[in-house]
């Protein structure tokens, strides 16, 4: 498994843990985030559950390799806080566009700032109060223990690949978020532009194109040489407003990408090289 915290939101998540957790204990937990240690991992309705393989430790009376049950749950945001945040997100095209491309906007926290009851809690964690539940069935009384810390790192790795997981951990699922944004004026307008009418299927008696007979003999010279000469100069190509847009919609760190470098940045460089290659020869 690649290093967690490669995205800015994954890094902020780990930084919050380091702010209220013993750094040595947290670092020990990194070794418990691998697949050989975390035997089961699931996130259901914002609750993170995991089965972590422990060690034999006679000091704690553990003489057989144990399997510990670990649970982590972040503090969900109140309904009125979500309503205000959704209204702010839905009023800014940049936030809606980035979220529609599976990207976490770097100014997303501005949508959660405010004064009054139920506000002041951001999307990303900042202190221990942002975690409603952290427990483990191991005999270690410290919290977090190394097993919980290992699940923290696994969770940060999952956040790198799926930024929408942050909304789920705070109490708003992916589909709930999209439906809520679609109800805002801007979100509804962008959602309408994305929808296109699907053409009705046309019945055919063959999967293959059949040749059509013609009465006139073909003009082989026009076929091979064309009826018009190609222009000697081509109009300059205009750079794309959003480079590699199809790649960006898949997310910066897709599941198959196990390197620390940004996949979107790499593809943008590849697109640029392809566009610039042999440009002077055209």
Automatic annotation (TrEMBL):
Residues 121-156 form the SWIM-type domain. One of its GO terms (molecular function) is zinc ion binding. Keywords: Metal-binding, Zinc, Zinc-finger. InterPro entries: Znf_SWIM. It comes from the Bacteria. It holds the Pfam family SWIM. PROSITE patterns: ZF_SWIM (PS50966). This is Putative Zn finger protein. It comes from Thiocapsa rosea. The lineage of its organism: Bacteria, Pseudomonadati, Pseudomonadota, Gammaproteobacteria, Chromatiales.
């Amino acid at each position: 498994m690649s290093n967690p915290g490669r995205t800015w939101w994954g890094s902020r998540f780990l930084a919050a843990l380091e702010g209220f957790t013993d750094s040595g204990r947290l670092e020990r937990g990194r070794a418990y985030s691998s697949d050989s240690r975390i035997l089961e991992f699931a996130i259901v309705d914002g609750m993170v559950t995991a089965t972590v393989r422990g060690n034999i430790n006679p000091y704690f009376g553990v003489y057989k390799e144990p399997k510990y049950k670990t649970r982590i749950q972040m503090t969900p945001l109140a309904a009125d806080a979500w309503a205000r945040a959704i209204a702010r997100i839905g009023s800014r095209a940049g936030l809606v566009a980035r979220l529609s491309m599976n990207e976490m906007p770097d100014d997303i926290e501005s949508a959660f700032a405010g004064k009054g009851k139920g506000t002041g809690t951001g999307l990303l964690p900042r202190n221990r109060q942002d975690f409603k539940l952290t427990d483990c069935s191991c005999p270690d009384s410290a919290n977090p223990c190394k097993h919980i810390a290992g699940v923290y790192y696994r969770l940060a790795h999952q956040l790198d690949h799926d930024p929408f997981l942050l909304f789920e951990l705070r109490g708003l699922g992916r589909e709930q978020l999209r439906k809520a944004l679609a109800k805002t004026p801007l979100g509804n307008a962008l959602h309408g532009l994305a929808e296109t009418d699907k053409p009705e299927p046309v019945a055919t008696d063959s999967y293959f194109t059949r040749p059509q007979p013609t009465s006139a003999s073909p003009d082989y010279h026009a076929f091979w040489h064309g009826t018009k000469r190609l222009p000697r100069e081509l109009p300059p190509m205009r750079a794309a407003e959003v480079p590699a847009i199809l790649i960006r919609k898949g997310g910066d760190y897709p599941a198959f990408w196990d390197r620390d470098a940004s996949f979107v940045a790499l593809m943008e460089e590849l697109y640029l090289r392809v566009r610039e290659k042999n440009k002077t020869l055209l």
